[in-house]
Amino acid sequence: MKRQVTIFVGVVSLILALLYGLIFVLKLPLFLLFPLLLLLVFIAAFFPTLMEFKEYERGVVFRFGKYYKTVGPGWRLIFSIIDRVVLVDLRIQSVDPPSLSILTKDNLTVTIDPILFYRVSDPKRYVIEIKEYKTAAVALLQTELRDIIGKMILEEVLEKVDEINKRVLTDLIALSEPWGVVPTKVDVQALKIPPELVKAMELRRKAEERKEAIRHEMEARELVINTIDRATKGLNDKTLAYFYLQSLKDVADGKATKIVYPLELSKLARLLSGSIAPSGKQDTAEGSETSEGNALIASIIKRLKEQE
């Protein structure tokens, strides 16, 4: 701007010096002075202006209302009386529309805060084909987001934010190309859902975690049972009874002050000690059998402890 003012002052000074020379030095007649003044005014009116365009700027020049050329970067002569210049910035710019509330496929409301980044690829089309790209970009962005998110349930929206950004960007590139604009990035910066829905989703997540933990625990138990079943298929009754009583010994080693033995343990103890009768014979007194079995159990557990 300072350069333009300097040039203008220089031109005016030159005209004034020329007039002074013509009138007082050359003593030019007045009838020739007025046509000469008109000629100088005409020349001054069409005198070009020197404009500077930075590396990231371009000037779209219209001459007599019609597109003439695109200029820049650097210094260019512009005839301001017949030319109009529209300055275009080629740097990446952003569009930050207001927050948008969208109804999802499962009739839940989600609030998003998107932002669009773009750059001008063709200054001529950017000036001629569209009046205000930022206004159009906001409308396009909102329309695309409503169309895409409206076909998704809330869980999909929360899980596929990156995919939504890519789909919106692809659609905006196709729509903006005729305008000489290239969208470079779409970013949904904030995604908000109602607090009560957040609480419900948290409770559901915890329930799913508990369900998964129980499933893993049951699978582990099933694996242990199957392993024990395969390991004990080749064991006889006496060996199984021995392991049974070994478990009882571990119980007896605990802090419990009283242990109640199941009734069937009397037979297992007699089987282990070899005192059980052959098949087909039964004891005559159930009470004596129980007392004898309990004594055998205690004796066997005592021996197992002594062996350690």
CATH architecture of the largest domain: 2-Layer Sandwich
Main sheet makeup: 4 strands, antiparallel
- CATH fold category name of the largest domain: Tetrahydropterin Synthase, Chain A
Tell me the name of the CATH class of the largest domain: Alpha Beta
How many domains make up the 3D coordinates?
A: 4
Order of helices and strands: HHEEEEEEEEHHHHEHHHH
What is the helical fraction, as a range of percent? 55-70%
Overall 3D shape: rod-shaped
Total number of helices: 10
Low-confidence stretches: 275-287
Fourth-level CATH superfamily of the largest domain: Band 7 domain
Structural Rg: 48 Å
* Number of E-state strands: 9
Distance between the termini: 103 Å
Question: Could you describe the 3D structure shown?
Answer:
Helices cover 55% and strands 20% of the residues. The chain has helices at residues 2-25, 30-45, 123-128, 133-149, 154-159, 161-176, 195-232, 237-252, 265-273, 286-307, and strands at residues 49-53, 57-63, 66-71, 74-78, 83-89, 93-95, 100-103, 109-120, 181-192. Mean pLDDT is 75; it is low at 275-287. The chain has 308 residues and is of the alpha+beta class. Helix 1 (2-25) runs antiparallel to helix 2 (30-45) and helix 8 (237-252) packs across helix 9. The protein has ten helices and nine strands. The protein has four domains: 1-47; 96-116 and 129-193, Band 7 domain (Tetrahydropterin Synthase, Chain A), CATH 3.30.479.30; 196-234; 235-307, no CATH class. Strands 6, 7, 8 and 9 form a four-stranded antiparallel sheet that branches. The protein has a three-stranded antiparallel sheet with strand order 3-2-5. A two-stranded antiparallel ribbon has the order 1-4.
